[in-house]
Amino acid sequence: MGNLLKVLTREIENYPHFFLDFENAQPTDGEREVWNQVNSVLQESESILGGLQSYKGAGQEIRDAIQNPSDHSLQEKAWNSVCPLVIKLKRFYSFSLKLEKALQSLLESLTCPPLTPTQHLEREQALAKQFAEILHFTLRFDELKMRNPAIQNDFSYYRRTISRNQINNMNVSLGKNLFLNLISGLKLFYPSAFVMITCDFVQNKTLPLENTTDCLSTMASVCKVMLETPEYSSRFSSEDTLLFCMRVMVGVIILYDHVHPNGAFNKSSKIDMKGCIKVLKDQPADNVEGLLNALKFTTKHLNDETTPKNIRTMLQ
C-alpha cells in the first residue's frame, strides 16, 4: 500500500509510476474473468455514444402533425419517423441495464474481503480502469443527452400518441411493444439519469456500504492528486486522459453523494470537495462546464444545511 500512500500524501519525489494507470493497465490472471465480462459490455459504448451524437430527431414531422391534427398522412409520417428513433432510445436504455450489471460486478470485486478497497484498487489496476471507464461513459452520455432536446421531444410525442390511441392503422404492434419496454426506462433520459445506476447499486445488500464509500472516496482522492500534481499530470500521454481523469473524479463524487447517508459535501466526508472543485476550476472552462453542472444538478446533498457555504459558493 506504500505506493498509494505516496500518492495520497503527495510524497511523489522519485516515485516513478501512477497509482491508477488509466492508459496502460492490463488484467492479471486474477482479474481476467471479471475483466472479460465487463469488456464485452464496454466494447459497445463508443457505438452508443456515436448513435447519440448522430441523433437528429423528428422535430419537423412532429410539428407538422401537431399543427394539422386532421391530416392523417402527416400523422402517419410523424409516427413512422418517430418509431425508428424510439428503437434507438430503447437500445440506449438496454445498454444502460448491461452497464449497470457490469458496474455491480466490478464493485463487488473491488470491495470484497479480505482485501480493503484501497488494496483492491492498487492491485487490480485493470478493474479500476474499467470502473473509471463506466463512469466516464455515463457522464459523456449524460452531457450529450442534455444537449439534445429532440430525445425527450420524440419520446413525449410517441408516448402521447399511444396513450391517446391516435395511431389507428399504423404500426400498432411495434408501438405498443416499444412502449411497454421503454416506460420503465424513462429515467435514462432525464437529468437524474446518472442516479439510475446509483439506486440499483445501493439496493445490492451484498456490498458493504463502508467498503463501497471507501472505494469511491479513495478513487476521488487519487484522481484529485493526479490532476493537481504536475509530476503526475505531465505523464499523461494525451490530453484526453486528463479529461478522463476529471470525469472519473466527478463520477465517483456523484456516486458517493448518493450512496453515503451524509453525502459528499458534509464536513465529515472523506472526499476533499473544496480541493476537487478547485482542481476543476483550474482547468479551461469549456472542458469542465458540464462536469461542474453535474455536481450542481445530479448530486443529492449539495443544498443540505450541513454543506459548508463556501462549497456552495464555489459551485454557483
Topology:
Layout: H1 2-8, H2 32-42, H3 45-53, H4 59-67, H5 72-111, H6 117-123, H7 125-146, H8 150-163, H9 172-182, H10 193-202, H11 209-228, H12 230-233, H13 239-259, H14 273-281, H15 285-297, H16 309-314
Helix pairs in contact: 2-5, 2-7, 3-5, 3-7, 4-5, 5-7, 5-8, 5-9, 7-13, 10-13, 11-13, 13-15
Fold and architecture overview:
There is one protein chain. With 316 residues, this protein is an all-alpha fold. The chain folds into 2 domains: 182 residues, no CATH class; 108 residues. Helices cover 67% and strands 0% of the residues. The chain has 16 helices and no strands. α3 runs parallel beside α7 and α5 packs across α8. The longest helix has 40 residues. It is globular. The N terminus is likely disordered.
Instruction: Please give the number of β-strands.
Output: 0
| Helicity range | 55-70%
Oligomer: single chain
**Global morphology:** globular
Helical/strand content category: mainly alpha
Tell me the distance between the termini: 38 Å
Output the radius of gyration. 22 Å
Mean pLDDT: 82
What's the number of structural domains?
A: 2
Protein name: Family with sequence similarity 49 member A
Subcellular location: Membrane
Family: Belongs to the CYRI family.
GO molecular function: small GTPase binding
